[in-house]
Predict the structure.
Amino acid sequence: MTVPGLGRKGQVAVLHTRRGRSALAAALLAAVVASCGSPADDAPPPPVTETRTVTMQPFEPDGDLKPGLRVEQEVSGRCVPSVLSPDNDLARRCFATETSVAMDPCFVPEPDVGRRLVAHDELRKLGVITVAVCLAAPDQTDLTRIYVADDTGVYGLPWDDVDPHWALELADGTQCVKVFGVREIREELHLSYTCDDGGYLYGIPDEEPPVWLIHHRDEDSDELVYTEVRTAWK
């Protein structure tokens, strides 16, 4: 490009200036785009105003798994009422025939949906009456599917003195899952949950206030401190 009235040096100076401005503008634009497009991974979660409760059900009404879930492995087995989620009528504790491993919680679909899912001659010959899917945390996406030949259903007993939740999310986003059969007592409270931050929860949640409270212990601490519960799953 030629700018009238300028000599060669002037032409070069103008070109360099414009190139410099173009480079600066491009750099600024890239910075803005990067800033706008980057997820706010370090942003703290919003304050908790009320604890949210979720009744877990991985199945859609038509029997499909909900979006984002997929079956990683398939086994056969039998199921009994869930120990970790006793208040959810569709929650189960299942035992795989191939390994005798206990999985809890697992979830079956509504009875009529379950019958449709196993309405195949091959499954009928094997005595399969429904299916269940099992997961170890609320955000797990790879599930185990069990073809269930024996299902004893729900307990049908009162659970007023039992924590019906199998997983809790704390105010800071920490996720905790219930433990079973671990005997540890601190300040007269039993160990009830292990958390993905390395910490632990003791006792059961105080559900009286809008934001529930539960005792939390950091991994390297002996002190129990009340912490807020953002979400509770059953």
User: Anything to note?
Assistant: The chain has three helices and 13 strands. Residues 112 and 150 are 16 Å apart (CA to CA). Helices lie at 8-37, 111-117, 121-125. The mean pLDDT is 84.
